[in-house]
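Question: Hello, beginner here. Any chance you could explain the protein record under this note? Any guidance would be welcome.
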Amino acid sequence: MREKLEALQAEAIEKVQQADNLQALQDVRVAYLGKKGPITEVLRGMGKLSPEERPVIGELANKVREAIATALDNKKNLLEEAALNEQLQKEAIDVTLPGRPVKTGGPHLLTSIIEEVEDLFLGMGFEIKEGPEVETDYFNFEALNLPQDHPARDMQDTFYITDHLLLRTQTSPVQARTMREYNGDKAIKMICPGIVYRRDSDDATHSHQFTQIEGLLIDKNVRMSDLKGVLLEFSRKLFGADREIRLRPSFFPFTEPSVEVDVTCKVCDGKGCNVCKHTGWIEILGAGMVHSNVLRMSGYDPEEYSGFAFGMGVERIAMLKYGVDDIRHFYTNDVRFLSQYHKA
């Protein structure tokens, strides 16, 4: 039995040395040290030995087992190290190669316009206010001098959720909420940018969802000339220091008098071209003095307070400023278009 154990040790160690991968090494471990291996069989046959031989053979069997296990562990370490070195060789990085450019994003053009307008009005002392996009009929219409039967409601084809809830068609409800919050006790100087929704068919100049920025100033002794001064400063900062504006009479239910505001054409400097339809002017926003009914419904005394309001479409401003000919470009997420307007 001694000879058999020594032969098994020599045979197993030779198989360990021949193993060239971890799986082959594991097969050797199972073959010689497993429950059905030859060493286990030798130990099971020790009952046939004399009492004097049992401890001797048992000790030898344990030494053989330990020798084979040690050889297996040493070989495993060598194979793992070789595998790691091979992997490191395959994954070696040539630091002399030129770097791969990493494309970075930037703010969306509409976001840039909003931030530019916000910075401008913050510099003039205005606050920035926000409100819900799901609005009540009262704040979206009635508080703005548009009762249920008012024909001007037809100008804004609305997404209704219930009879009294809707997706806001303008950011003017934020103005109405702010006036109601202040309860006629203090002056207001605010702008409110946000998303609005109307049931328009999408085309080059219309979208069912677009962005507005509206402004409101209420105080004592506010005049139309104050409105013109603010809008002139806005136009020159956004379109160029040499721009001029004009106010044309118009109609909005929540302002009286109401005006459309035009700016001199950037392309022809007001001389007339195809862009401005040879008028020298381009319409940019609507404005007017806050209607006395709107002031009164919000708790302001129209005999003591007056104010002006204005509203602009951010997409229209962006289209005019950068010469974009289709509003849908802002929403189709074409990186080729959007990347043209990333600031360095």
User: Anything to note?
Assistant: The longest strand covers residues 209-219. The radius of gyration is 41 Å. The CA atoms of residues 28 and 77 lie 15 Å apart.
